[in-house]
Amino acid sequence: MEEGKDSTVLSRTSQSRVLPQRLLQLLVLFLVLCFAFSVVSVYTIRRFGVLSFVPAIMPTLQPCIIEERNNLDNWIRPPSNLMHTMSDKELLWRASFTPRIKNYPFKRIPKIAFMFLTKGPLPLAPLWERFFKGHEGLYSIYFHSLPSFQADFPSSSVFYKRQIPSQVAEWGKMSMCDAERRLLANALLDISNEWFVLLSESCIPLYNFSIIYNYIKRSKYSFLGAFDDLGPHGRGRYSEKMLPEVNITQWRKGSQWFEINRKLALYIVEDMKYYPKFAEFCRPACYVDEHYFPTMLTIQAGKLLANRSITWVDWSRGGAHPATFGGADITEEFMKRIFEGHNCLYNDQPSSYCYLFARKFAPSALEPLFLLAPKFLGF
Questions:
Q1: What does pTM read for this prediction?
Q2: What region does 134 belong to: left with phi over 0, alpha with psi -120 to 50, or beta?
């Protein structure tokens, strides 16, 4: 029994000695292989260079570097997210960039930027959705609302994620012009936007998209009212403190709803000469949204203005604001009245096609407008 125990102990002892020896041999072999691999790697790098040693890495990294630094798409691609973090000062500065060479080195399809200045919801959005349908690539949409408003358009809507960073805009005050400049500046970031239309949530189009696009595209002028009103609501609002930048003979008045081209939009966003004067010396009862742009653009580019608005309104009821039309007002007779009896100049020639948009329409007008649109609006 004792001899059996001794033999068992001896065999276990010998096995335990063999096992560490094998592990030690494997470890030594691994270290030798690692050393050999290191020597070969150093030699290869010195002999052939890093690029040949890692051919699979550089092709994946190099295109990213080239695209980020040199690709033209980075300059001409419109912003993917309109909710940026730029201040107004930064935004206006960025939007004032403009190429000095007028021939574009890429195929540029000019678009109309439809800019909605709203308090919040767009109750007539379904009508506009039908208007825009099928014309992708020829328009851009931006809307400015109260900062507290959170839009909830579905992803299928043309208004989805088209809200810009907004601030409070008060009627008749400089904050209203600030909102309009904010819309223009955001729209200018898209190099393909050539024309800019300011609309409200109560506006509707009076023709189908193709007619409106071609009317604006073929016009030699931008459509902004800028007339010399000699009465108390025109020159009567002028202050001599506007001198020397603006004298009374240059003082103009017009509707805030306009259509302008890219050149005039740049004049507005880059202006630092007239803005301080209007901000300080045109306050109620001087309503700056009726005078700032008409006066400034008349001074800088008066020959580019048609001196009329293309947005129809009804002032027949009197008061400080035009008439608002609800569902009960929208009849076939009413629609005919909008289109009849107009005379104006288009490219210096007489025309009866004077208005492309109309306002003001209440939310209750949506259903009858939707029903009458195919017959009267063409969509």
A1: 0.81
A2: left
